[in-house]
């Protein structure tokens, strides 16, 4: 046994599976996460995978936390090391007193193991070679076997795993029987040959409640269905492809005419992202609710059409599942690095509405809302997710919808309005909010028509190159952006337990780690007020939060402090007052990282204050 005492915790630890891409391990690893959930214990699962098809290292991390923290914590308590390529790295990432499970079919010298961890070898390869003759079966069932070993050493309820296997392969009895058998072979071997249980245990609890386990891309797609979207134009790109796939599946259930069987939706895979944004704009101009899912490289290609939609004032919804950039960057890693690109997309003076969901529940809510906002404001709306939200399953409240909700189509002039003599100017602001009336194509045989163009025009859509009408139009667009401040979701403010001079601003997938980091900081005597920004443009609450604090930290997952830059530019705040906390290595930001970074800066500020007094 190692000199360091083994970690001893119940329902509070991190398990990391180290596998090879294409080995079929993901479904087995998710089986483990779902089994813990079924025992009433919250989990946060994250799949960390390469951008190739097969052969490179992949990891799957499951945080087991009855206290309910769902962000990445940092550090690993138990690693299931099934990839020889990363064995040394995986072992190095273990906390002192942690546990390592590995395939001992090929013995490893004792000198290669750390002395401060507990090593548990199981000859899984040898067992599979004995039990199965087919090479693919050997690999697949080896994955299920190590779940059996885990179940034994963590003292898990095997009935839950048996039930999950039955559900996963429902209707395929041979597969159910084979997988259940493999699971019990692994568990039985561990019970007979390993010290079961170890210091880490999963004990049945009641901490999950009515929450659901869903990935952000699926929730976003479902939000689009409930939000009235009937057109999806897209080009395949990681990590957003899941939105189009899920939208297609949901439409096949909910967008089929029950009498004729005809599809009441259109999904078009285009030749590139520029084409997909053009199709979205065309469909929306015709009155449909349309969207394009994409990622950073797609937003780069969409710049020209985003400028057209902004200037011609055409509703459009773009869903950006951010990944590591620039260029191809890290296609399967997470970042929040498209903020400035999206906010000011296109050449010239443009500003776009951005929504920042924190997880699947808000992804569903904001996805539906984005279509209302696009119609109300007659402008592109960009839903800013990232890979951590989009491609990972997250425990979240049930997705809720008000069946009495009426879609907000904005200012649309009807044939009756036109016959009544209402003055129609496509770019005429009649009530001071900067938003003009529009008509749908074919509204009236003689009235309400206009020419849609990307060139300058006057309030009645008549072409002009005069400076006065151009300035008039650009200032009206700014007024419309001011109107948007009252329509987008406001920030969520959480005050510290004691009054604080310091504040922290964060957004999106940083949220769960930030919430835990705040508790860690408060335990160390650092009280911070928190503001989770949920949309751009920023409303007055953001200005008030900045003014009411001596210093504010802005936590984000990119190199260039993009949200901080946006805050400084749009709110006119002194840059010295706003301190960036940046994490951008492609892995999800952790509570430990945030807490350590902020504590260090608070410590520096305290030392400077002491020197000033001295």
UniProtKB/TrEMBL annotation:
Task: Tell me the SUPFAM superfamilies matching this sequence.
Answer: Pyruvate-ferredoxin oxidoreductase, PFOR, domain III (SSF53323), Thiamin diphosphate-binding fold (THDP-binding) (SSF52518), TK C-terminal domain-like (SSF52922)
The GO biological-process annotations, alphabetized, read as: response to oxidative stress
Q: Which Pfam families match?
A: POR, POR_N
InterPro entries in UniProt: 2-oxoacid/accept_OxRdtase_asu (IPR022367), Pyruvate:ferred/Flavod_OxRd (IPR050722), Pyrv/ketoisovalerate_OxRed_cat (IPR019752), Pyrv_Fd/Flavodoxin_OxRdtase_N (IPR002880), Pyrv_flavodox_OxRed_cen (IPR002869), THDP-binding (IPR029061), Transketo_C/PFOR_II (IPR009014)
Q: Where is the Pyruvate/ketoisovalerate oxidoreductase catalytic domain?
A: 22-187
> What is this protein's record name?
2-oxoacid:acceptor oxidoreductase subunit alpha
Q: Which domain of life is it from?
A: Bacteria
- Report the NCBIfam families cross-referenced here: OAFO_sf
| Record key words, sorted | Oxidoreductase
The UniProt GO MF terms for this protein read: oxidoreductase activity, acting on the aldehyde or oxo group of donors
Q: Give all residue intervals belonging to the Pyruvate flavodoxin/ferredoxin oxidoreductase pyrimidine binding domain.
A: 224-390
Q: Does the keyword Oxidoreductase apply?
A: yes
